[in-house]
């Protein structure tokens, strides 16, 4: 095997640096996913049950995908670092293939996420509304008591009350944290804000990772060509 010199040597270390950043980014993604999974607000809401129905878990599916992506990124980043230092065409080729697959999966996930960006909040709003309707019933029953417990969790977790124009109904009851005349944000708005904020965090992280992968694919191809040329 020949020895890399000049610009190709520089590309080799740049690729190692980007792979190291990619490995660190995988750790950050994994940590972010675990934080989203165990965040108090989302956990309190998504673990609720009402009338044998579990709160929608579409958000957790996205989080589990992130956990898998973060783990794979750390493995692929290590593979790229080792391949760059060893100047191995086989390892770099495997690394490039993994990058292409990851990039394709990220684009597909991004398209799916954009098309279903409001699904998570809508599902949880519908779940809240079904409990809300039962909670304001005049007749006292076990179903109403269960609904009141679910609605209280929403109100305490999100610091909200009601679902819009019906909020004054709760101001006269014990379901709201505050029984004053202060205007309280309705829970529909709070739910949309909660998941929109988390989706923006996920989207920003995905964009940064995509940019890093593009540079890595370019440097990997250049380095592979340089290694093959020096071999002859």
Automatic annotation (TrEMBL):
Intrachain disulfide bonds: 160-187, 161-176
Family membership: Belongs to the tetraspanin (TM4SF) family.
Principal location: membrane
Topology of the protein relative to the lipid bilayer: Multi-pass membrane protein
Keywords from the named record: Disulfide bond, Membrane, Transmembrane, Transmembrane helix
Gene Ontology CC terms: plasma membrane
Pfam families the UniProt entry points to: Tetraspanin
Gene designation per UniProt: cd81b
Protein name per Swiss-Prot or TrEMBL: Tetraspanin
Listed transmembrane segments: 13-36, 57-85, 91-114, 201-223
UniProt xrefs under SUPFAM superfamilies: Tetraspanin
Superkingdom of origin organism: Eukaryota
Protein's cellular compartments: Membrane
Organism: Denticeps clupeoides (denticle herring)
Database matches in PROSITE patterns: TM4_1
């Amino acid at each position: 095997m020949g020895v890399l010199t000049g610009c190709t040597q520089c590309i080799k270390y740049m690729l190692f640096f980007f792979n190291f950043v990619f490995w660190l980014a995988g750790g950050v993604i994994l940590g972010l996913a675990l934080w989203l999974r165990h965040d108090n607000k989302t956990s309190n809401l998504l673990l609720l049950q009402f009338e044998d129905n579990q709160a929608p878990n579409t958000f957790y599916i996205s989080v589990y995908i992130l956990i898998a992506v973060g783990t794979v990124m750390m493995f692929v980043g290590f593979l790229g670092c080792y391949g760059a230092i060893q100047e191995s065409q086989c390892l770099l080729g495997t690394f490039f293939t993994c990058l292409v697959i990851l990039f394709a999966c990220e684009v597909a996930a991004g398209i799916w996420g954009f098309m279903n960006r409001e699904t998570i909040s809508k599902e949880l709003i519908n779940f809240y509304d079904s409990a809300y309707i039962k909670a304001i019933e005049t007749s006292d029953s076990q179903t109403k008591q269960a609904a009141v417990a679910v609605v209280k969790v929403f109100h305490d977790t999100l610091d909200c009350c009601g679902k819009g124009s019906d909020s004054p109904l709760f101001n006269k009851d014990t379901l709201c944290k505050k029984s004053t005349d202060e205007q309280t944000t309705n829970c529909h708005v709070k739910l949309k804000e909660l998941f929109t904020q988390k989706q923006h965090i996920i989207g920003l992280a995905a964009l940064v990772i995509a940019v890093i992968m593009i540079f890595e694919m370019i440097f990997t191809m250049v380095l592979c060509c340089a290694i093959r040329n020096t071999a002859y």
